[in-house]
Amino acid sequence: xxxxxxxxxxxxxxxxxxxxxxxxxxxxxxxxxxxxxxxxxxxxxxxxxxxxxxxxxxxxxxxxxxxxxxxxxxxxxxxxxxxxxxxxxxxxxxxxxxxxxxxxxxxxxxxxxxxxxxxxxxxxxxxxxxxxxxxxxxxxxxxxxxxxxxxxxx
Length: 154
Ligand SMILES: O=C(CO)[C@H](O)COP(=O)(O)O
Fold this sequence. Notes:
Strand order of the largest sheet: 2-1-3-5-4
Number of helices: 6
Bound molecules: the ligand O=C(CO)[C@H](O)COP(=O)(O)O
CATH architecture: 3-Layer(aba) Sandwich
Largest sheet: 5 strands, parallel
CATH class: Alpha Beta
Radius of gyration: 14 Å
Strand content: 15-25%
Structural class: alpha/beta
Helix content: 40-55%
Distance between the termini: 26 Å
């Protein structure tokens, strides 16, 4: 699995902690860090969220972990990229269902909301979840995709 990570300066420390965890995980073949590298970089959350989501849309990464102050801004941004499904998930069950029910490729965290140890635990679990295209959830996700393909200019 190839994972892209990104954060604004509110989320950089948590992003770095998750990135290092992923780099040590044998289930992850590649971790791409799009920044920011430090809190001095004040690029706004949409810049990072959109860049990471576009990486997934281009097929250059399978999953993404995005961090901002709340996790909300990067989730909204990532969801604007056609084909990408992103959500904030600050608990284990939501993180699991974001993959199994919604086929989300992207999980987001708010560094001002969740601590690093819980976020890392959720990410370690989340990496192990997969979407079943034969599940009852698949048709529901397909409905969203069909809407997107009919209405969103690419
Ligand atoms: O949390 C954020 C966006 O959802 C971001 O880190 C801070 O945004 P701001 O409150 O607009 O500065």
